[in-house]
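Quick one: structure tokens for this chain, please?
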Amino acid sequence: MSDSRTIESSGTGPVKATGVPAAAAPASGGVAARAPEGMAGLAKGLAVIEAFAASAAPLTVADAARMTNITRAAARRCLLTLTELGYLNHDGKHFHPTPRMLRLGGAYLDAAPLPTLAQPYLIAARDALGESVSLAVWQDGCALFVARAEAERLVSTGVRVGARLPAHCSATGKVLLAGLSQAEVDAFLAGPGRSRRTPHTIVDAEPVAESVRRAAADGYATSDEELELGMRALAVPVLDGRGRTVAALSVSTSTARVSTSELRDRFRPILAEHATLLGRNL
């Protein structure tokens, strides 16, 4: 369910390159050890690309080197190559992604069946609730959003296709964690420090573990201003034919517009119904 990469959603942690077994990754983070037939340069370039997704902001050479744990010289070569190929712009100090970068993510979205299968159910749930509905999968300790149906009323959660949210303080993350094995949950809890996004964010291991256990027992999870002040969310698991959690279906709304009881009593059954319908196709 997860691979050898590690991306910190806050943009402060290391980004590992993909494509090698977890055992090959260095304990200190950064670019994973190269497989016998792998390409070290490609691994570094992909790590730099993923650093932009993790930071959600322009990067300097120093930023890219720090986030990928490679030398500044190597980071600079990667950035200049990506600029030459049209994936980045350079203003003299910062490197900015160009629209061409979307092609890389588009390859997954165009070919993967899950986002395509999910979209009609996201739209139906959005129309029933009048709020934006999203689909996320587990990746590297984060909830990665792969599909979304936007409502006319937008909530500023930073949620978009391709965005990552930290698992410990997002409803989707808690649901996805609840679908992992106990060993995987323990490894997550023993991992790098969890960022405090608001005064309501829970960061200590045992309370986070309890929220995961509660999500597993209840079949849903909530986030009440843990991720962003003024925003609450609810998520339910999407189960495949074998009962495995393959994704999380979620809705986000303003605290001023929807109470926690309404989120639980009115929103949850509708979201769960569409998650079940989607799961029957998996």
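The domain at 112-279 is CATH 3.30.450.40 (Beta-Lactamase).
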